[in-house]
Amino acid sequence: MTVPELPPRSSDDGNSHEPAEDALGGHTVEELSDYLDRGCTPPDPSIDDSPECQIVLESLQRLRAVSLNLFEEDVKVESERGFSWVGSILDNIAVDARAGRDIPVHHPSPSAHLVMSEGAVRGLIRAAGDSVGGVLIGSCKLEGDVTVPRASVVVTVEASVLWGERIADAADRIRGAIYSELMKHTELQVEAIHVEIHDVLIARTRPTTELETP
Amino acid sequence: MTTPSQLGVELSQIVAAVPGVQRLYPPTHPVIGALAGAADAARGALTSATESLSASMGRGSIASGTAASVSPQIVAVTSHLGEIQVAIRIGVLTSASAAEVCRSVHDSVADYLSKHAAGSVAAISVKVARIG
Amino acid sequence: MSEASPHFPLDTADDRTLVGRAADGDVRAFEVLVRRYGPLMRVYASRVLGSNDETDDVVQDAFITAWQQLPELGDASVVKSWLMRIVSRKSIDRVRARRPHVDVDDVDLAGPESATPSEVTEARSRTQALSIALTHLPEIQARCWALRELAEYSYDEIAAELDLPATTVRGILARARKALIREMEEWR
Known about the structure:
The complex is a heterotrimer of chains A (214), B (132) and C (188).
Chain A: H1 29-37, H2 45-48, H3 51-80, H4 86-91, E1 102-104, E2 112-117, H5 118-131, E3 135-143, E4 152-162, H6 167-185, E5 189-201, E6 209-211
Parallel strand pairs in A: 4-5
Antiparallel strand pairs in A: 1-2, 3-4, 5-6
Chain B: H1 4-16, E1 21-25, H2 36-50, H3 59-64, E2 76-80, E3 83-92, H4 98-116, E4 120-131
Parallel strand pairs in B: 3-4
Antiparallel strand pairs in B: 1-3, 2-3
Chain C: H1 15-23, H2 27-49, H3 55-69, H4 79-98, H5 104-109, H6 117-121, H7 126-135, H8 139-150, H9 155-162, H10 166-187
């Protein structure tokens, strides 16, 4: 079904001062909205030099600003209302979906099938890294065929470092903490631990620095 | 003779008592959360079909992963043609080596089965699902 | 040395850290994301839905999907707009389920009677005036407005989401803006 040309519902009440499209130098409000969305570039003199168009553009701009203010206010009110809804979200996510691969644990008995999940090992690595003060581990990758007994693996973690921490020191401490925890809890042969510092709290735009294991 | 379900309860207590074990998790890969109802139904079907007793899959403990207590029937025991299979999923403390705790759990279960279970042991699966 | 370093709380982490951790299975990191963007998504969803009744369900659905798909999110810096897309989709699905055959003409034309100016003029603030004015818009106009202004969808994207021709979307948005501007002028 085609949408018929709608009558200007509003101007029917007769109290509208909105300029008719004729008065907009042939431009429609749609065109002016598009123009605004484009950041008023490239400049169109037929719009820029028309006082009627400028009035509409200003109204549209004002509306946009108020819209964003309203949204921000609503979000603030919503935040102040509390977070009682968070619990049921967390109760409903499938934590197991992140278990990852099965990493074997050696046992001499043929009937023994002992494994730890990759997810458990990633959690261990995160906790080890976080235990180093002033840093926070981000993503964590285990490369290598960890499903093979005593596999050799390369660990790569991202980390944020609090502003003021020396990055190279922090990376060394992270590497040390992760290594000793992996040695203690797993049978993986750790070939290398890469620490990528991607963020410094406060100075968030700092570029990624990769620090390789010696 | 001990039924698989009784054995499941007994083994849960054995596993929970192993030093370093923090908690037990349901051993299967449960369909969680929004699909918890379906999981319950699936468990019912599974139980009746294969005589296995899956863990009591309390929704709270599966989904939130925060329930600290050990459910009484959280070790799955299946008996098929006289062969016993056991599946266990655990969270361990960081104080002891996770790999060692995993082996200790296996050994404790194997020891218990050799003394109390009729039939041979086909498999004992232990999975460390969480460390710390 | 490390004892002297301050603790780095998770809720101050940037999105990239949180997304990386949540993708790896860290529920606490996911919770921080939920608290960070949930209120935004709730406000937005209720604007698209036109009511608060289904907000809890829609936002919960959106976050469950987000949790499932987080490992595939390549660029963590876009997590906010990615979440807004998911909640948009869920909200629109809900609206569709509510009214399987949306007749654009009807919906667009069957707006409430012309606004009572007094309500708007009595608004305490410009934003409150807009809030009232929005309640006077036909549902489809308010929805397009939310998609365009709050989630920054393009006309084509709105058209795709709502199964409408892009030209229709342009028209709907223009009418919405005209009506809102008119009411806002009354407030002034």
